[in-house]
Amino acid sequence: MAGEVANITDVAVKVTKDIFKWFKWDAVPIMDENFDCHKVDKHKAPPKKKGKVLSEPKHSHPVDVVFKYFDPYTNRVVLLNTDLKSYAKGSISTPNIIAALESLAKTIDCARSSSEWQRKYILDEVLYEIRGMLFIYNHDGEYHKDFLKLVEPINTDKLGIQEGQMLHVLDSERIRYLFTVVTDMKSLNAEDEFPIKDYSFFYPDLYLHKSHGDPDSLPATVELLCAPYMIIKHGDPMSGKEPDERGNEGYVIYYNQDGSTEYEFRYLLDSLSRFQILRQKCTIKIRVAHSNPHNLIKSNFETAKNIYLAGWGMDSYKKTELERIEFEIVNLSAPRYMPGVLAWRYS
User: Fold this and answer.
1) Looking at the structure, do residues 158 and 272 belong to the same domain, yes or no?
2) Distance CA 218, CA 225 (A)
3) What DSSP letter does each residue of 180-210 carry, written as one string?
4) What's the pLDDT tens digit per position in 45-91?
5) Does residue 2 lie within any of the structural domains?
6) For labelling alongside 66, which of 35, 128, 144, 272 has CA 20 to 30 A away?
């Protein structure tokens, strides 16, 4: 394997720097190390020879990298035991995904009760939760199918996922979306419209779940990364400059739907109103980062604004609130992690 796959640590560091650090995730420094399986009878069948079962084999589970972040709704640190996969277009298939998920399910089943895993990756005395994440990168950039259609046929009951165990999948299109968001954040920063550090992902208090932690420095949970939109609250992007040159604090909303109807934007505007964001004296930017936005997306957004205003009796104050919203479609970006340049673990 050494000829095809170099050091997976290089990939983990690169992915962390290029993508996840912007979502306020950390990578545990120990990378690309296996840990011993303590459920060998369950996770690996003993070898046979001429109908006889040989002695119980040793078995281990791979850990490419463990990402961690604080979840404001569960009030716990989430530890994502991550399997980094790189596939060409033809290798992104249902059988390969099933094999990867089955392996990951066994890894997490072991990790949750492994003293060795916990000694390596739980470095602080905090409440925590161990989950699995499958990171699927398409290194030739040729895969453009609907990934959900690949996973729909999978019978999750047969994957070996245990009670209370969670596995997350970031497919190639989701990775492109996240990379596009990060690239746009950098671009806004270069234009003095977004601060490099003074920002936090927004979590409203819900009926069943309240947000914990410092509201000025919250990370993006994996659920938020996979949501239709994410809201980022930021401080003054020009705070270090002279008083008369300073900007305004505000919100950036990254939108990951195609905008094919006005209904989705009506829902978004209702949400911003319910979260009291429209009432605040700050900038509001909606940045569409979808891979294939509808050609009438801007018209649908304007229609949604007009319907929203009509519901308020064309209130002039509400109109002023909506006029503060900047609506833009951002340029798509894609990472280029080339095989042979960076290391990947292949199936």
Assistant:
1) no
2) 13
3) HHHHHHHHHHHTTSS-SS-EEE-----SS--
4) 555 555 555 555 678 898 989 999 999 999 999 999 999 888 888 88
5) no
6) 144
